[in-house]
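Fold it.
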Amino acid sequence: MVSGNARHADKIQAAIESDAAARSALIASWRRSATLHRLDPADGSHPFRLSDAELSHARQRIEPLLRAAQASLDRLYLAVGGVGCCVLLADRHGIPVERRGAISDDETFREWGLWTGTIWSEQSEGTNGIGTCLVEQRALTIHRDQHFFAKNTLLSCTTAPIYDHEGNIAAALDVSSCRADLTEGFVNLISMAVTDAVRRIEAENFRMAFPDARILVAATGEKAPNALLAVDRNDLVVGATRSARLAYGITQETLARPLPAADLLGSETSFAGDLQEAERAILERALIRSDGNVTAAARALRMSRATIHRKIAKFGLRGTN
């Protein structure tokens, strides 16, 4: 009698020997697992786990992202934890460094390797949610027997990549479950929740990376969600999320040169207009700070009262005395 592990291994082998890998991303991942990483789908050994010191070092490498993610991880767990799912945030090497899960499920999830410090790279565990998501850099679900290893075929894993403030892949957010009754409809709801959490994490991490900048939401629609720009006090773009980079063709080389936000966003502008608007803003701030007192504003700007009065009239501002 052929065991379940052997049947799964035979199915994997038949698929990767066919020409289906050219049409199926899943079978292409199975083929990478078998031929590139030389893994055996029937291997039932436990996944490799880092030492406490190694895990601590892995956490330190993405500490800013971890801080940015805390609230979103809590919110996501509130949405999915009650139905037997756990939430994992893995670094770009496929190592979960943060986790949310019910205490009553801890023993089960630890046994399955759904725990911090376990290596879920595709190189180590074959086709799986975290590892394959990081390789293919796209959101996906690896459901039960879509996993490469037969030992993982009771798992359902929905994962999405997280990009840092420079547009580089930095982590993966995963919701995993061992429930046999997980329906396709509920998996779709999990996928939407994971995608929403990723957007929140990326946005918060971006804001934390540019604390002194104004953050603009670019009007790109759903074709480029999370398209955020960081703009300095001179209205120059100093940062852009991955979505904004793709939408506007921004590169690190682009950001190395002064890049006016108005030029990037296609606003109608001119150098003369920019100078006039800047002059008006400076004068208006001086008047506000002096409670409209022209003499005090003139003193602060080192201008004569006559000059200040001319500019007030020019820009349609109001002042006293």
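The beta strands are 85-91, 96-100, 140-143, 156-163, 169-177, 214-217, 228-231, 237-240.
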